[in-house]
Amino acid sequence: MDEYLSLTSLSCPSISVFSPVVVMVPKLFSFSLSRVRRWIYPLIALVTILGLVIGQPIVSQAIPWRDLIFRGIQVIQLSNLSPQQEVEIGRQINNQLVRQRIRILQNSEINQYVNQIGQRLVAQGNRAGIPYTFQVVDDRSVNAFATMGGFVYLNRGLLLLADNEAELASVIAHEIGHIEGRHAVEQMRKTAIASGLVGAAGLDRNVAANIGVELAFRRPNSRKDEFEADSFGLTTIRRAGYSQSAMVSFMSKLLRDGSVPTFLSTHPATSERIARLQQMVSANDPGGGLDRAAYRTRIRSIS
Description:
With about 300 residues, the chain is mostly helical. It has helices at about 35-55, 65-70, 85-100, 110-120, 155-160, 165-180, 185-195, 205-220, 225-240, 245-255, 260-265, 270-280, 290-300, and strands spanning about 5, 25, 75, 135, 145, 150-155, 205.
């Protein structure tokens, strides 16, 4: 009887008006502990997610609550990012770059040529399972960069400056080295922590993509990251049959010209990197890809 209220002196059609009637009615406010738990824990989780999302700075127009909730559950743990998540974020970064920051060269012949070289190099690496994407940026300045998830970008000006395919391959291999080492993921983690953007549940994937776009241009690679990418690049072009000396010659050319591009201007100094590379060049350098005339024929459409 503890969970019921007793109501008396109610009229009933089949009973005398003055006959007492007892009706058993469930108590409205009597809940067992198990029922409380069933409702309160999901509520706490929802409030936590909303708190993480609302606490993030949102630079845009007002976003519907439904979208905020959806965004709130798209959190990632950068310390344990899966290859699939890395590719998804890389694709999101690429979409923003193409829409807002760079213009991809509309030349299928050149893009196919660069992709052919890139895939040849990827086959010698350790992350062949990632679907690498190589794109040429329609910009006459000399530059190259990479974002997480297998996205590599080379400026049109870099292709024009290279004397042969091996020199171009050396730059592509260097950028692949950054992806192999997951350097962009570590940069993103440090940036998110320094900016206070990481919550208890992780980092919002949309925020991660925004950070990735900025990192693509700032390239705050550490001394260790650059040496790792150089070492990987040198080993990779040798395995792919390209001359290792081409990496040294191309980097030396940029240093002599006095206009070191962004992808070489980060710490450590280019001269120090050249000296290390010269010491690492293998005695059995395959020497392939040095035909200047053949290379110029391949890129004549953008000359």
